[in-house]
Amino acid sequence: MKTCPLRILVASVLVFGFALPLEVLAVADPHSFANPDEVxxxxxxxxxxxxxxxxxxxxxxxLSIENLTGTKELRLDTRDLEILNVEVSKDGSNWRVTFFExxxxxxxxxxxxxVGITKKSKFVRIYYRTSPEASGLQWLSPKQTAGGELPYLFxxxxxxxxxxxxxLQDTPQVRVTYSATFRVxxxxxxxxxxTNNPEAPLDGVFEFNMPQAIPAYLIxxxxxxxxxxxxxxxxxxxxxPELLEASAKExxxxxxxxxxxxxxxxxxxxxxxxxxILPPSFPFGGMENPRLSFITPSVIAxxxxxxxxxxxxxxxxxxxxxxxxxTWRDLWLNEGFxxxxxxxxxxxxxxxxxxxxxxxxxxxxxxEDLDELEAP
Length: 376
What we know:
By secondary structure, the protein is α+β, with helices and mostly antiparallel strands. The chain has helices spanning 4-15, 22-25, 241-250, 254-265, 308-315, 332-350, 352-372; strands at 39-51, 56-67, 73-78, 82-89, 95-97, 100-102, 111-116, 123-129, 137-140, 152-155, 175-183, 189-192, 205-215, 221-224, 227-230, 235-239, 273-277, 286-287, 292-295.
């Protein structure tokens, strides 16, 4: 199937705020077991307990679905999940136990979850628990944090790791809204790529809502000794207390970046743009989770010399989070346009000379990557 022209059409339509029928958007994804061409998940409601002792999440995922073809099966992506029970409902109030089965495991993909539904089914509720080896969850001991006293947990779902902590359609062509309730130890805070309340009490229960539809790889959360400082009317920084002052100072231009880009590329559609500075053991540079980008503390240089990373993750709010690749075979659509937009942000905020320096460094890194590639 030639899918590239369709993806380009979908991207163009979504940019200008229109919507295509859901069945038109489905293309074959070689990295997913899901069947969004037949039935599509539209909302995910999580209710989860966080157990640092066993390093597991346990609870339910309530999926709102649209059966597009009358199929009798919903196929979901999972990896190392223990499925305890599955129920279906027509109205969200009356539930019945339904058939479910985990298929054979495939390398890099996990196992498909087959769920029996009817053409009238509107909701599927899955009782499950994660594995301590879940590929999308990083459990940190106190020694791995800046404070050294409390444990920490964060998720990293890109590319297809969301399926290791939520049973869902883990393909970037499927976008869902979501809500979540987390129960954690009372001295810890939970934050998500959703609406966050920095003043929420540390009473062990945190609730979230994400009204904008996003692909599964952008569902993200963190649990730890997390504090907050505002940087602007729409921007702020979350991090451990030991990193808060330095982080707020280093990234204080985030609001200026946001204001500079909107007149050129359109309004920011995610309400807030906050940063979460992870503990020093965070093994990545940054992750563009909407409303709350995850950032490594290694870019706190003291002189703002590495803030192009912030510009890059912010740029994803347009290229990637609004419009992106339909499958992971075409990640260049996400990262390529975002890299271009990153340079434009740096130029608008810091001037042409800074943009030229960043572009030169990026070009050098590209040449190094090409040298490492094997000849075809």
